[in-house]
Structures are given as structure tokens and as C-alpha cells.
Amino acid sequence: MLEHLILGTYTKKTSRGIYQLTLDTAKKKLIDASPLIDEDNPTYLCASGQTILYTVTKDNRRGGIAGYKKQADGTYVLINKVLADGAPPCYVSLDTNRQLLYAANYHKGTTTVYKIDKDGSIQLSDEVSHSGNGPHENQQSAHAHYADLTPDKRLAVCDLGIDQIVTYDVTPQGTLTEVAHYDAEPGTGPRHLVFHPNGHYAYLFGELSSTLIVLRYHQETGEFSELQTISTIPSTHQTHNGGAAIRISDDGKFLYASNRGHNSIIVCEVLEDGKQIKEIQHISTEGDFPRDFALDPSNHFLIVANQNTDNLTLFERDSLSGRLTLIEKDVLVPECVCVTFIK
User: What family does the database annotate (predicted)?
Assistant: First the structure.
């Protein structure tokens, strides 16, 4: 079977923008990596079905979101862009039911909501700002790093700069109202979040602390409460590490997170229906700075993007044990920082 991916990159060196790639699950190979869309710093992407994708974008000193539509010949054409002065967002996600798009902006400390029209074009709906700071040198101000839906269709925003997860109610028109916030340990640097399939537990990755935090999610209030914290790096690792991406298997039995610096994936078994995790494997990503990775739709494979070494690494995943086995490591995609399957 052939699974299709789109890849986001920085364009500081040789990358041209958005790339495409195919996973041949029968041959266990990554094939046909090639440029797809010329775009400036498309560092995070999301797909709407088979034909529309949205990407963060940069245009000189302005940043924002661009939408593209796939044509019959496989090429993509621009639908529209919505730009604002300043740095581009770092995260974008889709709300299919309400036809909204959410973007988190690290440099501005803002979360922006866009309304999606019938033709796929977007227009600004709402924007909220955070304020504050933290004890780490990278926490001089608010840094929204993730904005995505909770199981009960609220919006959760991870703010690395102020050590918070902020929960918002969302109207059908895309207006945000804060309903709760969770305070992480100072210096944690909340980066990304995933939820257990049962909807009652979440797993927060602290970029600055290199920790995974198990949280109870209270759907009646939108609040989070802490249950467990573990390190994602061995105690013997003394040099810099930054937490990056986090994923959970569809069955909710295994959790995966990438370490930039230690250059590894940590694999954890999920216990007690989600309320506890246990480390079972550390495996090298066979490259430097694994900023993002993704499980394929079957959950039998995991693909890692190593930003600084311009390579993708393919692992096979044992669905019973959760453990990863290296398949290949020399697939070239320059400055790759986002891995997204087209489903």
C-alpha cells in the first residue's frame, strides 16, 4: 500500500518549501521525495481531506497562513493567504466540525482563529494574547506553541513562555473565551500535547525540562491536573536537550516523544487506562535535531524528520510491544521540520 505525506521545512539553506513523499508499506521504503510547493518557511502544515492543505508562511516581514488546493494533475494552487506584521505562526490545526483553523504564534504569544469558507479560503475570526514570563532564559515573554482541540471540542493552547495550558471555549464563529488554565512547574516550557483516546488523560511535553507530564483532563470544567512526570532523557545525558514532538498510538497503549540534542525517540507504555506511563525504549533517530515525526495511518511505521542533518528516518513499529526497529535512515529532505500524512 502507498501512503502519501507532505513535509514542511525551513527555507534558510537549500529547501524550496513544501515537499511530498510516499511510504511503500509493502516494501517498507520511503520513495519519491520531491518538491511540491515553493513556499517561504512552511514549518508546520495540516491537511483538510485529500485536496486542501494549510501551512504557516512567511512573506518578508509578515507572517500568517496560506491555503492550497490540489489540482487534477497533482499540483497545488494557492487559494489565499492571510498575513500580519511580524513573525509567522509555529503551529496550525484544523477544526472540521466548525470549519475553523487555529494557529499558535511563538514569537507573538498569540493564538489566532480563522474561519474557513466553502472554497477553502480563510479569513480572520479572532485572536487572543497571553502575557507573562518564566524562569528560563527562553521564557522572557509568552510563547504560544500549540493550539488544538480537546476531546470535547474546546481549544487547548500550550504556552512555553508562561508554563501554562490555557483552555478556551469556541463559538461556531470562532470566538475564544478562556475557561481554565493549568500551571506547569516553572521552567517546564509546555510545547505540545496529546490526548488518550478515552478523552480523560493527556500527555504534555515540556520542551525546556525534557519531561513528559501525565494529566487528568476534566471535561466538565476544561481543567487539567497533574498525575505523573518522567524525564525523556537518561540521567547520564548532560548536554543540551529540547523536547519536540509527541504522538500516541491509536489504541492508546504507547506514547512516543522526540528529543533534540539526545537525538532519540523515547517510547513509553501507557498503563492503567491512561493515568500512568513507563519508559520501555530509547532509540536513536539516526540524525540531528528530530523536530517532528508521525505514525502512519496503520500505526505500523514511524517517520522522523531530522532538521539539522536533512534526513528522514523510517522505523517499523511492533503494535504489541510498542517498540521501534530501524528500517532506513538516508532519505534526503532538506531542513525538514514537519511530517504529515494525507488521509
Answer: Belongs to the cycloisomerase 2 family.
CA terminus-to-terminus distance, the chain: 13
Q: By the 8 A CB rule, do 294 and 341 touch? A: yes
Which string of b and e fits 31-65 if b means at least 16 CB within 10 Å? Answer: eebebbbebbbbbbbbbbeeebbbbbbbeeeebbb
User: Can you give the pLDDT at residue 343?
Assistant: 86
**Residue 299: DSSP 8-state:** S
Q: Which of 336, 323, 328, 319 is nearest to 251 (CA)?
A: 319
Lateral strand order in the sheet of 122-129: 91-95, 100-105, 110-116, 122-129
Strand (E) or helix (H) holding 336: strand 336-341
pLDDT, tens digit, 9 for 90 and up, residues 249-286: 999 999 999 999 999 999 999 999 999 999 999 999 99
> Between the CA of residue 157 and those of 190, 228, 236, 329, what are the distances in Å?
9, 20, 32, 33
In this predicted structure, what is the pLDDT of residue 238?
87
Give the pLDDT confidence score for residue 115 in this predicted structure.
99
Look up the pTM and report it: 0.98
Over its C-alpha atoms, the chain yields an Rg (Å, rounded) of 19
**Which residue do the cell numbers 518522567 mark?**
230
CA distance 240 to 261: 6
- What pLDDT is recorded for position 106? 99
Type of residue found at 239 = T
> Please, how many CA atoms are within 13 Å of residue 323, restricted to the half-sphere of its CB?
5
Q: Residue 303 gets which letter from DSSP?
A: E
Cβ neighbour number for residue 122 with a 10 Å cutoff: 23
pLDDT given at position 121? 98
- Output the DSSP codes for 193-246: EEE-TTSSEEEEEETTTTEEEEEEEETTTTEEEEEEEEESS-TT--S--EEEEE
Polymer length in residues for the chain: 343
